[in-house]
Amino acid sequence: MEALVAVVEQQSLSGAARALGVSVAYISRQLKGLEKRLGSQLIKRTTRQLMVTDSGELYYRHARALLDGLEQAEDAVSTLEGRLQGRLRITASTAFGERYVAPAVMRFLTLYPELKIDLILSNANLDLVADGIDLAIRLGNLEDSSHIAHKLAPRRLYICASPGYLSKAGVPDSLDDLKQHSCLLGTLGHWQGRRGPIHLDARLKMNSGELLLHAALDGLGLVQLPDYYVMDHFKAGTLVEVLPHMRPKDSAVWALHQARLEQTPRVARFVEYLSAYLKDKLPKSRR
């Protein structure tokens, strides 16, 4: 049963084997045995892909519900006794994960010694189903999906630069002024404005907010970064906000998980814990 569920969710025998920590040959034997016992083909195998048959989809839905129910029953008993157990797979972006999620995970584990956590830091948005992720910490505006999203904290973007850069290049007052400035861009390839994206001819593009911060501090140009990167530098005077009237609407830090995990205690408890942790640790935005 677990083999079929893993194959459907991972969309390959090798992915299912990795998820369950077994060999591909074991997964294949389990599938063949299950199909023989049921007298029905559940998975169509070709050289390029696997296709779930109608029987396979029906079996998967019932098997997934049974496994979820068993997991929830075990979690409920553990929670009743004040314990959390099992494994929780969490993903977050690299810089935010290192600054905030990883420290929260470490503190959380000290509270629940029977719990195991896999923390995967990546700037790519991993697929919750295909990559076996229980909880994704996402930043900014979310795309529509069938997943459940919990708002953990507000998030605000600022355009800023070092005082040294502004003394040489001047302070921009309008969108047109940006054409005369060196602008630094991240993975989006544009800045976010109050009325939509701001497209720029960037002097430097990098896929790391941490590196963009250091580039701005070194006087390489204007940058747009979220509050948790820049607020301490505003207070210290090492960065100066410009174009405050062009700030986009506030977004948020989100915890995202599959709907079937909504009642899973270890997911719910960590979301609650991380929300309180971020409220205490994130710098307060300016108005």
Automatic annotation (TrEMBL):
Residue ranges of domain HTH lysR-type in the record: 1-53
Keyword tags: DNA-binding, Transcription, Transcription regulation
One Gene Ontology molecular-function label: DNA-binding transcription factor activity
Entry keyword annotation includes Chloroplast: no
Keyword Signal: no
Family matches, as InterPro entries: LysR-type_TF_proteobact-type, LysR_HTH_N, LysR_subst-bd, WH-like_DNA-bd_sf, WH_DNA-bd_sf
Superkingdom of the organism of origin: Bacteria
GO biological process, any: DNA-templated transcription
Listed Gene3D superfamilies: 3.40.190.290, Winged helix-like DNA-binding domain superfamily/Winged helix DNA-binding domain
Family note: Belongs to the LysR transcriptional regulatory family.
Protein name in UniProt: LysR family transcriptional regulator
Source lineage: Bacteria, Pseudomonadati, Pseudomonadota, Gammaproteobacteria, Enterobacterales
